[in-house]
Specification:
Structural class: alpha/beta
Mean pLDDT: 93
Number of domains: 1
Strand order of the largest sheet: 1-2-3-4-5-6-7-8
Order of helices and strands: EHEHEHEHEHEHHEHHHEHH
Distance between the termini: 32 Å
Number of helices: 12
Oligomer: single chain
CATH topology: TIM Barrel
Radius of gyration: 19 Å
Low-confidence stretches: none
Strand content: 5-15%
């Protein structure tokens, strides 16, 4: 597999499931894709669950005709979307490959812990012995569940290559639980998603400028915007130092922590922020300072589909 960029670009909002509000057309999204590719951010994260195939179809349209070695695709097996057939794993993988007109995925995930040991076993059986096997990862798993997944894969001559969990300045449970350290010690790439907390840590929103009502993220973050003011101020100070946008600081922090952030992109500006964030050299003192401010806020932003890692 090609080497990984410092940042992956997330296409979860491309499924138009209402998470970000509004509808995103393929024509509106194409400049975002082109900006990513132009800036060397060629790892695209999608899933069937993102709009029941909509995100995959949109991304596939942009990839069509490009050299296969020029991009990386990260896709997922979502247990709740699987058929009840014994061939459910193979069926989903092959349907996804066909939908995206691909011969292989570069990274393939067990999307959550619902029946995960069974599905990890099924994935191991499917990819065992294949020369085109992707990096296999698990998402929203605890440390014990991560260890179990790796044991299952190793029994089939494979290994766990990636973990994808919610991780941000205001949700560091994957660090506190030892997951981040375990991944770093075992050559497992830790993908941090929701680093910007769906825009709450972008510097764009505050009490005077709340998120537009009607979306899930507005319901979660608008009530705590006042408590985020101190963190936004600390990020603004660093942004000014590095001649950067506030939204680039949480991403730079996640990279400094040794993780690979997945940034959801719905505007070309999000891509440009990500590309610039990859080159901001936050110091250990600066990352620790941000964490000290964030920890004092006492926020719990664990979302409905996940759990606090212990």
């Amino acid at each position: 597999m090609n080497s990984l960029p410092k940042i992956a670009l997330g296409a979860w909002a491309w499924g138009n499931d209402g998470t970000f509000g509004g509808n995103l057309t393929a024509d509106a999204l194409r400049p975002i894709f082109e900006a990513g590719m132009a800036n060397g951010l060629n790892l695209w994260d999608t899933a069937y669950a993102y709009g029941m195939g909509t995100s995959e179809k949109v991304l596939a349209g942009f990839l069509k005709g490009l050299p296969r070695e020029s991009y990386l695709v990260s896709d997922k097996f979502t247990p709740q979307c699987a058929s009840g057939k014994p061939t459910a794993m193979a069926d989903m993988i092959e349907t996804q490959l066909e939908r995206m007109d691909l011969d292989r995925f570069d990274i393939y995930w067990i999307h959550n812990v619902w029946g995960a040991p069974h599905w990890t076993e099924e994935a191991a059986k499917y990819f065992e012995g294949r020369t085109d096997a992707p990096m296999i990862g698990v998402s929203n798993h605890s440390l014990a569940e991560i260890r179990q997944a790796d044991q299952i894969l190793r029994a089939h001559g494979l290994r766990l290559g990636a973990v994808q969990n919610h991780y941000s300045l205001i949700n560091r449970s994957s660090e506190d639980s030892g997951i981040l350290q375990y991944c770093q010690e075992n050559d497992i790439v830790f993908f941090s998603y929701m680093v910007l907390e769906q825009g709450a840590l972008s510097g764009k929103y505050d009490l005077r400028h709340p998120m537009p009502e009607g979306s899930d993220r507005a319901a979660v973050y608008n009530p705590v915007l006042g408590r985020l003011e101190a963190l936004n101020a600390a990020m603004k100070k660093l942004a000014d130092k590095y001649d950067a946008a506030v939204a680039q600081i949480p991403v730079a922090w996640a990279i400094a922590k040794g993780t690979l952030p997945i940034i959801g992109v719905t505007k070309a500006g999000h891509v440009l922020d990500a590309a610039r964030a990859a080159n901001i050299p936050l110091t250990a003192d600066e990352t620790a300072g941000l964490e000290n401010v964030a920890d004092r806020l006492g926020l719990n932003v664990i979302r409905f589909w996940e759990k606090e890692m212990k």
